[in-house]
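Consider the tokenized backbone below.
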């Protein structure tokens, strides 16, 4: 068993943040923790990594209690960049971890290369951009090749190219046997990494394999919208007219060529086609919707 979270409760004052949170990671996987701002994701991750105490409940990692100090060699937690010291260099931060865990200098060099931070490793953190800090934090977290890698918003502040690099790195680490538990607001990136999602709603976990909700939608620009709509609905396809030239066609298991040939045989001209995948974003809207005002951002 990689991680067991059993009946975890946590309140701050009168506010109950986590209510009987229970879930397991049984095999090496990538799991995303998703919820609105202030829903308790960071609190849960720091409780799992024993940086905060739960009011009640039990947590074990790799079949040891999460308070077991020997776990620091097998588990890493990437927190936000407030853990970095402005007057130290990136190398100093990596060196500190290497010293504590008896890792070699060559591991620092290799990891820095892998993440692509070598060129600024000797600069002070005060001169790092947000994205550079995120890369360094990630390098620090994977330096010890952990069995369980826990990441709080690893995609925060990354440009699209860097986000793709980080996504590919997480997929590679997973192939190498690392389990990844990450919180993120970037649902389209999450869809590309995993379909296993823990939604945190009003303090409780809703665990879902969202691949069951994944649907592909094609926006088709056609010469005759109402005729195309008629032909497809007659064959029980899910279709919506979105403008006087465009329809949306939702497919789950049917190959695209079947409805397309149906349209062409009935004389419809398809001028343009765009593919859209619906996954966790759809599900997020269903679970949290706009009416869930419990965790609305409060203007300061
Ligand atoms: N040390 C603390 N003392 C009091 N309240 C706290 C403390 N830490 C967090 N909270 C409150 O607990 C709630 C959950 O915070 P948390 O940071 O875990 O949420 P989050 O889901 O990670 O949010 P975000 O997505 O905005 O990062 C918030 O209402 C926050 O104000």
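A designed sequence for it:
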């Amino acid at each position: 068993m990689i991680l067991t979270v059993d009946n975890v409760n946590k309140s701050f004052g009168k506010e109950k943040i986590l209510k009987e949170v229970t879930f397991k990671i049984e095999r090496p996987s990538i799991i995303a923790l998703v919820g609105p701002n202030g829903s308790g994701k960071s609190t849960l991750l720091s409780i799992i990594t024993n940086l905060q105490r739960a009011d009640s409940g039990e947590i074990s990692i790799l079949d040891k209690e999460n308070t077991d100090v020997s776990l620091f060699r097998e588990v890493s937690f990437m927190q936000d960049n407030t853990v970095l010291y402005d007057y130290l260099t990136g190398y100093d931060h990596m060196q500190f971890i290497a010293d504590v865990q008896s890792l070699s200098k060559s591991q620092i060099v290799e990891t820095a290369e892998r993440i692509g931070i070598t060129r600024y490793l000797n600069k002070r953190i005060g001169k790092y951009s947000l994205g550079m800090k995120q890369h360094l934090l990630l390098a620090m977290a994977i330096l010890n090749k952990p069995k369980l890698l826990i990441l709080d918003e690893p995609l925060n502040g990354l440009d699209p190219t860097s986000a793709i690099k980080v996504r590919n790195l997480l997929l590679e680490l997973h192939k190498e046997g690392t389990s990844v538990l990450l919180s993120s607001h970037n649902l389209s990136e999450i869809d590309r990494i995993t379909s296993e999602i823990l939604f945190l709603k009003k303090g409780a976990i809703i665990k879902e394999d969202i691949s069951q909700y994944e649907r592909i939608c094609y926006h088709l620009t056609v010469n005759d919208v109402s005729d195309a709509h008629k032909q497809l609905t007659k064959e029980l396809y899910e279709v919506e007219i979105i403008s006087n030239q465009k329809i949306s066609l939702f497919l789950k298991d049917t190959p695209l060529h079947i409805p397309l040939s149906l349209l062409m045989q009935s004389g419809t001209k398809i001028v343009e086609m765009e593919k859209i995948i619906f996954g966790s974003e759809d599900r997020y809207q269903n679970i949290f919707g706009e009416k869930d005002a419990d965790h609305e951002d409060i203007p300061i």
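The chain has two domains: 3-212, 215-278.
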